[in-house]
């Protein structure tokens, strides 16, 4: 996960310094002569309302506005913060102080005048909190964008290097050579499957996103070619339920989990590799389960789990979850992506 220079701890320190400065310039008249302003009742209530409005705008309004920025949402958020300030000030200075101290700040409350007066007083809390939030947000955004550019470069290099496993290609070509030499009727099928895989790794993988059906076709071709290579001893139970086959995903998001299972899994008729893909309009769930080979360590190969997680973080930030379960006999990888 991304951690920039402005951490939560540093953000809290910035806020602490900010409030020290606010109170210093408000209450300290002459620091050398040790002259201080003594706050009266309504200055205290004002600061209470100021602080509550400040953090209401900072923690709720600004985050909501910039989640998906729209000018209407910005003006609406500012107006809500203004209403919160006005309501809280009326509550504390006209109701609470009346009950506790038998005092009110506005002796003659005219609705229009009261709203206009608080438009002035609320502006300071709203403007300062918005400014502070935007400064911190901008720093984090600039750092994150820089990180993303660097991660994209590094991931692309790793991704391109790992697109084709040379051992897989060499072994497959050797098997096809043997098939052709012995005039096997499966040789043409094997060549066709290999050409589909090579076409996918050469062209489709260069795209930012591809159709989900293309990724599934690549997985099927990979499985069938493995079955041909191993004389169909590779048993795979593939279950695909896709509501919209034209749904787009980044290439090689699903296939590394399958490649890992085929590389490290031990298969039999009773315990085949189980692959389940279920895609709705809102969610993608991909699950791969295989029996662990007796002398094989099960860990993601190909582009690797670390590389896969980085790509998921880039394409689906806070919208994905990958679970790896490794019990005594079985290895299970489950990927869940929020497509909304």
List the helices and strands and how they pair.
Layout: H1 8-27, E1 28-30, E2 35-36, H2 41-67, H3 71-101, H4 111-161, H5 166-181, H6 187-202, E3 210-211, H7 212-229, E4 236-242, E5 248-249, H8 255-264, E6 265-266, E7 273-279, E8 283-292, H9 304-315, E9 320-326, E10 330-338
Helix pairs in contact: 2-3, 2-4, 3-4, 4-9, 5-6, 6-7, 7-8
Word description of this protein:
- This is Sensor histidine kinase.
- It is an enzyme of class 2 (transferase).
- The protein is α+β, with helices and mostly antiparallel strands.
- It has two domains: 8-158, no CATH class; 162-338, Heat Shock Protein 90.
- Helix content is 59%, strand content 15%.
- The chain has helices at residues 8-27, 41-67, 71-101, 111-161, 166-181, 187-202, 212-229, 255-264, 304-315; strands at residues 28-30, 35-36, 210-211, 236-242, 248-249, 265-266, 273-279, 283-292, 320-326, 330-338.
- Strand 7 and strand 8 (283-292) form a beta hairpin.
- The two termini are 21 Å apart.
- The model is unreliable at 296-302 (pLDDT under 50).
List the domain count as a whole number: 2
What name is given to the CATH topology of the largest domain? Heat Shock Protein 90
Shape: elongated
Structure class: alpha+beta
Q: Can you count the beta strands?
A: 10
How far apart lie the N and C ends? Answer: 21 Å
CATH superfamily of the largest domain: Histidine kinase-like ATPase, C-terminal domain
**What is the CATH architecture assignment of the largest domain?**
2-Layer Sandwich
CATH class of the largest domain: Alpha Beta
| Mean pLDDT metric | 83
In N-to-C order, the SSE pattern is HEEHHHHHEHEEHEEEHEE
Number of helices: 9
The amount of beta strand, in percent, is 15-25%
List low-pLDDT spans: 296-302
GO molecular function, one term: protein histidine kinase activity
Transmembrane segments: 12-28, 40-62, 74-92, 119-139
Domain Signal transduction histidine kinase internal region: 156-233
EC number: 2.7.13.3
């Amino acid at each position: 996960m991304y951690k920039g220079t402005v951490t939560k701890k540093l953000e809290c320190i910035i806020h602490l310094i900010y409030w020290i400065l606010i109170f210093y310039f408000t209450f300290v008249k002459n620091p050398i002569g040790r002259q201080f302003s003594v706050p009266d009742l309504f200055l205290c209530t004002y600061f209470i309302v100021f602080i509550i409005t400040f953090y209401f705008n900072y923690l709720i309004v600004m985050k909501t506005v910039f989640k998906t920025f729209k000018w209407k949402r910005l003006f609406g958020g500012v107006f809500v913060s203004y209403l919160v300030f006005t309501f809280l000030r009326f509550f504390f200075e006209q109701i609470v102080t009346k009950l506790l101290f038998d005092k009110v700040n506005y002796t003659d409350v005219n609705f229009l005048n009261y709203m206009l007066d608080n438009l002035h007083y609320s502006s300071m809390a709203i403007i300062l909190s918005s400014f502070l939030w935007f400064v911190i947000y901008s720093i984090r955004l600039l750092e994150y964008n820089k990180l993303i550019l660097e991660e994209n470069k590094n991931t692309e290099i790793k991704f391109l290097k790992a697109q084709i496993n040379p051992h897989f290609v060499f072994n497959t070509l050797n098997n096809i050579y043997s098939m052709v030499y012995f005039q096997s009727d499966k040789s043409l099928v094997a060549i066709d499957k290999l050409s589909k895989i090579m076409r996918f790794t050469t062209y489709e993988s260069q795209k930012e996103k591809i159709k989900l059906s293309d990724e599934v076709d690549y997985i099927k071709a990979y499985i069938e070619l493995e079955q041909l290579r191993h004389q169909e001893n590779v048993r795979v139970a593939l279950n695909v339920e896709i509501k919209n086959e034209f749904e787009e995903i980044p290439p090689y998001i699903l296939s590394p989990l399958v490649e890992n299972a085929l590389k490290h899994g031990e298969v039999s008729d009773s315990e085949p590799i189980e692959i389940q893909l279920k895609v709705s309009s809102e969610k993608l769930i991909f699950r791969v389960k295989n029996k662990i080979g007796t002398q094989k360590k099960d860990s993601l190969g190909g582009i690797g789990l670390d590389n896969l997680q980085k790509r998921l973080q880039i394409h689906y930030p806070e919208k994905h979850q990958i679970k790896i379960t490794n019990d005594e006999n079985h290895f299970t990888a489950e990927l869940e992506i929020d497509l909304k």
